[in-house]
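Structure ticket #2291
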Amino acid sequence: MTDLTTYWKRLTELPGIVRRPEAAKLEALEDAGARALVEEQTEFQRILLLETPRNELLLLLNGEIQFYSGDEHRFHESLAIVPVLHVSGPVRRVAVMGGGDGLAARELLRHVGDEIELLRIVDIDPAMTDLARTHPRLVELNRGSLSDPRVEILNVDALTYRSDEPFDLVLCDLPDPTAPVLARLYSREFFSGLRDQLAEPQGILAAQIVYVPPLFDGVLGTMRSVFPSVREYAVWMYSFVRAGFALCGGLPLRKHRDLPTGTRHLTPEVLASIFYFAPDEPRVSVSGISTEKNGLVMEWYAAYLREHFEERILYY
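Resolution: structure written out below.
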């Protein structure tokens, strides 16, 4: 496990980052007996799949945690099921941008699988989708979602992908904007391209956004420059502290169906609470719009790292 230090090297060398808590987190993983099930450098990223002594899984991509099996259901129910509730008609065609671990697909197939005719995973890295489709521990966690006959995997760049037919629902489960190319996934141009791939007028887009200012509010503002209706929500996590999301559409956003049975985290009470933001929560007013050219989202992300990184990692 000593090689784990390489995955945290980029973050700990950034200006303004407090190093001791990050090193302590790494040492805690080692001391707790976590072991690497998969270590692979692909064309696009470094994949690290860890197993804890409690038989839990952690997936890290380029040193950034993607999921922790102890709480990932909170994230993926919020990303997948909440927008489904706001689609006015049947959910027949769905696209997931990113989502190569198959966990968002799992929730969709489990709860609205009787409606879905096509669930397209658009993930750039075939190594990630192959791993999620074949590794026994990941297959167990995602319930074999990527082998479902309704699921189509396209290993292409979400930035340039365009569908010939519209989708009822598009989910963005994409990496944080840690590099200029990833920042384009949070630009006005990218969201405009996704809007054009939604069925009119009922199509819904949902995206995860890191819940910290000014990044959260800046991306929301960028989305509002594209979509007539945008509504933010957030869910508490053990691994991320709090995960933020945006719900976007061309019509006023209203709930059109009840929660499905069998959700692990979402209840009617939780559903109501995730749209509520207390007046003392750290929200900021951001005037700029992130575009492919100005890369403002990178500035917002850098501000988040400088101002909130220590607080964030201490809760992991």
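Closing remark: Confidence is low (pLDDT under 50) at residues 1-22, 310-316.
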